[in-house]
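User: Fold this; tokens only.

Assistant: Input:
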Amino acid sequence: MTETATDFARPAGEPAFRPATPADVPALVDLVESAYRGDSSRAGWTTEADLLGGRRTSPEAVTEAVSHAEGLVLLAERDGGLLACCQLERRGERAYFGMFSVRPGLQGGGIGRAVLVEAERLAVERWGVGAMEMKVIEQRADLIAWYERRGYRRTGEFSPFPYGDGRFGIPLRPDLRFEHLVKELRAA
């Protein structure tokens, strides 16, 4: 199915959604880095700057996500400006949600919630999946609580942080691991 900007449109005042293209990769890398790493990330509440140093992503990783045959990177824009993004990937009967980033100065204003709702809607509409899953660094208690308020539940499953793999950043503590969250989705 070929999508158009109107497939992702929202009422006035709300962000407009569209799938990313390869031309969006530099802006996406900048957005993701600003939301999670370095001093700029401290303007928002989703910073990982106290847990991880180094880069959060790379142009190669974002290009791979944008080009994935069973996925897409969803952009939220207003007046031509990039506000937020997330990665969606079909994984069997579930969709994976990742690379979720909101401009630090806009965090807490409802943009993230709108992106998550749109991502869930797309996962059901496009792939007919029954659930959305994600992995969150266990030490991110505020972020996990935010997802729980939106219907995600902790599964009790964990996966190790990839220590020594610089693609995921430079750990600043020795006890990092990912907690798996899931939400059952229903068709509208």
